[in-house]
Amino acid sequence: MQTSLANKPRQLNEKWLLLGTLLSSTGNSMIWPVMTLYITGVLNQSFTTAGVVLMIGAMVSLLGSFVGGKLFDHWRPYAAMVMTSIIILTAVASLIFFNKWPVFAILIWIANFGMGIEQTLVNSFATTVPGQKTRVIFNNMYIVLNIGVVLGTLAVGYLFDYGFSLLMMISTAIYFGLMLIIVTKFNVSVDAADPVVSNEEEQGNKPTITRKKFKLTPVLIAIGALLFITYLSYMLWETVMAPHMKTLGMPTRNYADLWMINGVTIIVLQKFVSNWANKHPYHVSVILGSVIFALSFFFLIFVTTFWQIVLVFELLTIGEMLQSPQVPAWVAQITPKEVAGQAQGFVSMMISSGRVVGPIYSGVMMDHGWTDILFLSVFIVMIIITGLLAVTMSRRVDKNPVA
């Protein structure tokens, strides 16, 4: 008897995953680069207030990451993606008309909540794409994400002077396109392993169903700590670097140029970096990338000109390329498929946790004029955590060489 092709479950095509990532990244990158400047320069709020807004935004994004993982594993991933796209679209569209204080902050938080859910769901969907290794999928997503960063920051650099509402109109159109892709292309089969049934069933007794749970192992804890300090550090570039560069006598336009250079570097070099990384175990790439990433903050203490900052940011970018796309694929590889959503939710939550603490920590340090101590402190903490991850892996690698 032949099986009808019409009954074969449809699977997500990588091109739609990548296009969705591109649109999401572009829309998001038209918002976050101007957050601090808009809150302080247009809404006339303090830098402390701007830091609080960013912190709360990261907290609700963290909550969204947790919710997204649960929805993927225990509800309907497609329905969750559709609802999330509607939440983000509604919040961003509302910012066109309601962008005064404090409504602006509330709408940003709603968008952050939706983006937290979306990030986890997209990463979880990425683990289901057939035909390629998971780490290749995440490398491709990382490249596309940074293309979106380039497009979004370029738009901000050229259009911000024409008003925030114009940026939100364009971002709304982008998120509407994302919603259409999700509605039409993400209604796919999400494979999940069957629950384990005990042999009591063979003896005529009621079977016992065992479902795997997401558990924190020493390696996952070390990875989580590394993600936390990495994105706490990364928040320095999104918060204090714009005013720090202004203090050094550089125009605001140079800040947008910096992100454009960062994105172009990733687009050009990521394939070469990922080809090298894919030939080595995950931990080799992640640990090397983390050391390079940390060193960039040490050198940042000594820079005084724009091109020196560019060189330091390029060093950070190389470290980021080695580390960032490998981590979600690594976590997917060392956790059961049945908890893929919660595993990717853990990744997103640790990223969001760093983003929660980053603005407040950097704000306090900047208020006291401790800029150099700020850069030195994140360098030291990141080196320590990277060392702990290396020690943890040295104890594990003999038992599991592919980890």
Automatic annotation (TrEMBL):
Residue stretches spanning the membrane: 16-35, 47-66, 78-98, 104-129, 141-160, 166-183, 216-236, 256-274, 286-313, 373-391
Keyword Ribonucleoprotein part of the UniProt annotation: no
Membrane topology category: Multi-pass membrane protein
Subcellular location: Cell membrane
Entry annotated with the keyword Ribosomal protein: no
Major facilitator superfamily (MFS) profile domain ranges (all copies): 219-403
Record's keyword terms, sorted: Cell membrane, Membrane, Transmembrane, Transmembrane helix, Transport
Primary location group: membrane
Alphabetized PANTHER family for the sequence: MAJOR FACILITATOR SUPERFAMILY (MFS) PROFILE DOMAIN-CONTAINING PROTEIN, RESISTANCE PROTEIN MDTM, PUTATIVE-RELATED-RELATED
Protein name, UniProt field: MFS transporter
Gene source species: Leuconostoc aquikimchii
